[in-house]
Amino acid sequence: MARTLADATRRVLGSRRRGDRAAAVPGADDTDAALVADLVEAIGADRVRADAAARYLASRDASIYKEGNAGPVCYPGSTSDVVECVKVATRHARAVSPRGAGTGLAGGAAPLGQPVVLSMTRMDRLLEIDLDNGVAWVQPGMVNLDLSRALAPHGVHYAPDPSSQAACTIGGNVANNSGGPHCLAYGVTSAHVLAVEVVMSDASVVTLGDLTAEPAGYDLRGAFVGSEGMCGIATAVAVRLTRNPPAVRTMLLSFDDVSDAATTVSAIIAAGIVPAAIEMMDQRCVTAVEDFAQAGYPRDAAAVLLVEVDGPAGGVAIAGERVADIARRNQAISVRTAADDDERARLWKGRKSAFGAVANVMPDYYLHDTVVPRTRLVEVLERIYEIVDRHDLIVLNVFHAGDGNLHPILAYDSRVPGTGERVQAAGREIIEMSLDMGGALTGEHGIGVEKREYMNRMFSAVDLDQQSRLRASFDPHCRMNPGKVLPSAHSCSDIGALRASDAAGVWG
Amino acid sequence: MHLGLDDDELVACVACGLCLPHCPTFVITGRDTESPRGRIALMRAVQNEGAPVTDDLIRSMETCVQCRGCETACPSAVPFGHLMEGTRAALAGAGRITPRWQRLALRTLRHRRLLLAGSTLLALAIRLRLVPTKRLGLPARMPLRRPPLRTSGDDVWLFTGCVMDAWQRDVHLAVQRVLEAAGAGVEPTGGAAPCCGALHIHAGLEAETKAMARRVMDGLSGDDRPILVDAAGCGASLKDYGHLLGTDEARAFSARVFDVHEWLAERLVELRSRRPVDPLDVTVAVQDPCHLRHVQRAHQAVPAVLAPFVADVVALDDDGLCCGAGGAYSVMEAELSRAIRDRKTAAVARSGATVVASANPGCSLHLAAAGLDVRHPLELVDQALSASRS
What we know:
Chain A is an alpha+beta fold.
């Protein structure tokens, strides 16, 4: 009986497992059969998926761009896996698109023309910590917050903290030169990446930058950071470690009027104070996040500022008092200081969940990431509200006020006919207006596909040609994440690498 | 294929990705197909875009543990549990998931006598080493005889359920002693409420679950006594009857349901006032069952109740990530389930605790099978109380 029972169990479990394996093998009807077979041969069957469900999901990120079209999806575990994938893709005349956590907001990770997608999530280890030199080597799939948590016992952290830091990866941060609330004082990703190991489009492996203070020669590392996956695939990143500040003070300032909040931001900076972060949220945004975070954000204030100062305890106390003073002089209706780490954490949780909380208001959103001169914040905000009203839309404003990096979130319901056009029109006006005010197209989210066609508005044909040539010097055949950043007229060589998408899409 | 999902619930996901680090299967596999965001996108593709229900798409749904860790992480409060239950109901209805043998096995849970007798046979078979317990994730030893359930008063019901009563009646008895020490007269539900239906709804057997819910409500009707539950999964299921059946009666029933720790946390003074208690000399790590933390959101009651009775209570540093048990999941998806468990055992090792307290029988069996010393939190409280008694 023993044997029978055990055998029966094995049969049930065993048959299931065989079923799984069968399902994992790429579909026989796949037109990419030869490519997939080579990828499997190169890095193993458990690291390759070519089924419709996997490709469908690898075709999108957190943006509203839904036209991506992924080829086979690979999950490399090492630099050499990446090298092998690039070699196989090249042999089959296919492009390669890397992907982190897919939290990007501009379609940068949405693959165009059925490239081989490299999902870097399995390369998520912290390779080495060098406290003496304040450097750590990490793999690109490591989650930003996991890195800081792993560093916490050593009293250091990784400073750039995008709102999506709980999910986004270091590789994606490097690709977009990501910012975050604390980049006001600490600088964006580029200031925290010392060197990058890169698999180039010819499958060679190079290290850009080094750990010395002043590397010799051109700053190729600088060119690579922010190149949105178009100059090669990062497989290891040397990040700068930042000492945890001895003291932190987090303050929540509330205002009856959005322009009072904006004026306060300029006044703080004008007073010579450089807070670690100055974040602004308007009423609609506060209401959306408070439902989730329960951080005690005032729902009745027209706008709030989240201001953090850090450094030696004495300086923090003085700076904190001065900030509170400036706020009161600018009609703040309340000034609250977080009493402990728990309260501080809840306030930040609220701020950092803002995008994700939009569905509490509307099921879809489209946001821009323009940067405007801080001194014109009041004017710009008024214009945004005016544009949005005119198009009969809803906007939630949440942004890095300290450096004038706006994130107007246009919230809408795509199921309502005609809304998409109004959203696009309002978005275009916001961009035009921001640029007219002397601003820039993107602060930290990247250009990707969504903002690509706006590049002509920002740069001249000569500028764009130079950018195209820089990219070509890394990737002459345009095989790395093709079709992004540069407007279509300036990325003609990319077109050769793009396969015409089959009309049926991944489910074909 | 229309999955019968509520369109407003389905479109509420903005794909921000903040759920990803809280999904045990995404953390293990790193694949979008095994993530909450990805699963929702696939549900949409099927229901709204007419995508075919491929085997791979079904795998994506089957690999979900239904821990609902994504729900507490979601800033937009997407009701993922409902969406997944609805999807599974549609897939089971179409005969695409939950094979016949599984449906038969689940059916036995409703038949209390059959289950108790079967469990005794199984216990015997285990003693005779006729069953590969490790492979099946079964306990290495199961009780051959169960002491009878007894009624000590009519202040509260103690929900005894199906498998837990058959396999872990000792826990119910310990819980009952603790409740009595807090001054409550207890009536175990026994045959009056044979099974809550949690495993059935997870498997997509919606009609069956509804029938079972009505049976439980009938058995416990007639008064407004609180219904206390010492198994987090059952508690979550009973609290969801209001939503499942959508009637006022069901909502009123669900409002009577409390996790036993939730109820005791309000009565700690009574529990501690009887006599001085010597805390047990152990360091206990509290494992938060997902259905206590993410569904009932009552997990903080466990350390509150436990703390006075043991030397030290430590929290795990894994953000309450699932242990991989997931009811029948540990059997159906053994490989993934064990990979998820490895992370939990590593967190326990980091905590330095020697004993793990788990308020859910599924988690406790699953973790014990990995060699951990796992107790129900109230077993520890009972032990401390009875040690002081003597």
